Amino acid sequence: MIRIENLSKTYGDTTVVQPVSLTIEKGHIAALVGTSGSGKTTLLRMINRLVEPSSGKVWIGDEDAATIAPHLLRRRIGYAIQGHGLFPHRTLAQNIAMVPQLLGWKPRDISDRVDELLTLFQLDPARFRDRMPHQLSGGQQQRVGVARALAARPEVLLMDEPFGALDPVIRAKAQDDLRDIQRQLGTTLVIVTHDMEEAVTLGDRIAVMDKGVLLQYGPPTEILTHPATPFVEALIGKAERPFRLLSLSHIGDIAVPGEAEGPALPRDTSARDALAQCLWLGRDRLAVQGGGVVTLEALRTRAKGDGA
Amino acid sequence: MIARLILAALACLLVAFLLTPQSFAWLFVPLTKNGAPPIYTQTGLLSLTLSHLGLVALASLASTIVAVGLGVLVTRPAGREFLPLARTITSIGQTFPPVAVLALAVPAMGFGAGPTLVALFLYGLLPIFENTLTALQNLPPSVIEAARGMGLTRRQRLLQVELPLALPVILAGVRLSVVISLATATIGSTVAAHTLGEVIIAGLLSANTAFVVQGGLIVGLIAVLIYEGFQQVEKATARRIGQMQQE
After folding, report:
1. pTM, whole model, 2 decimals?
2. Labelling B131: which of A257, A272, B151, B211 has CA 20 to 30 A away?
3. How far is the C-alpha of A187 from the C-alpha of A208, rounded, in Å?
């Protein structure tokens, strides 16, 4: 759990982050969204004290972050950034082993952990352990960046636009993988993004920031259906809102009894994809695996944010 | 490939000449007048070359340690204010003529290798310092940010990340410095240091062009070989960290 209390940052006369308070539950994902210059990255960097707060406190679990030496604090908190920041002169194994080494793990444990993480991120250890970062594709580098951040089993993982440099197809896959791994490990995750789509996809809660002020902090549905200010509404994008809402529910949850022609869709298909299918096939109902149908009517209701 | 063969041939030629200078005498005879000796024999060419190289190596080592040290110092938060001072010192070292350094150093240190070492040391600082500075100031920001974010201490960041990544550019500075020193060391012989300058000066004093040419040729050949050697090492380190495409 991370508790942020009245955290603010000023440089001279400029206030970059106005006092912010928010709590991120253990095992949850919080997405900090905003335009550039909104203070979201500064807020993130205050959590591991890459930026020293001007006022306020950060609690990691029940420990005050200000009482831990910065480099020791950072070894306990995973950190992954845009452009991955892998050490170009070290092999992948050495990159991943960095923090465990700093923490004085046994070599045996470190090498086991490296293999475990490479496997978790779908990189065959035998093939990839001794490669240099520049020999990988962008998507692979990014995965190693996240693997490295998770190496010492941190309770908390901070990510600053980790998928910013990836192309859309790889990005979607990377987001899915991250979510799976995060659920599996139970890591508390704070992710900074300028992309509302990414925030909705990943976030259990979304914090919207603008000009150093936290405008709204809540679950994606609440942000989408009840934007607190015109800025939040603009960030969501009026044209996108129904689709983003639909992307939050699975058709298994809105299926009703009935029969429909055509192949059945898996229950964890997003309502958004189901709507696309309806429109593309010109049907008003689709079969759902395991029985039942999803109707265009139900999708329409969802898209208006009702019954969510 | 062809370039490498030529270099290997040059290296063999150099070694052969240094070991048995007399077998090349016929080459230098046309440059002599009135039956003057074509090969310098007052001191062995090999011994002069080794002493020349020793002086350059010692001076360059000292320049490297001091210049890299200065470069590291002025890129730390605590040392940033020394940047202008360090720049001034190294620039003066480069612009102050080595001959003048010799003239000033002799009264204090006497004749011999000492004044030459000082002159070469000062002369060699600037390229290494400037390259170290450029390298340390232009490291990939995401890598440095990641290193901080992972909890490396300042010292760990410097030794494990910053210097290894800066190495190719620092080496390029050392290369320039060494090559400049190789040529500059010849003037050390004006104050009785054992360098290949002795051959050139002897040639000037006795109007023997053969001496001047052989002194100059040996220095030039060594400079080319060392330059190439350094470039290979630089390329290898740069390739390792992915800064250069495979050839």
Report:
1. 0.80
2. B151
3. 22
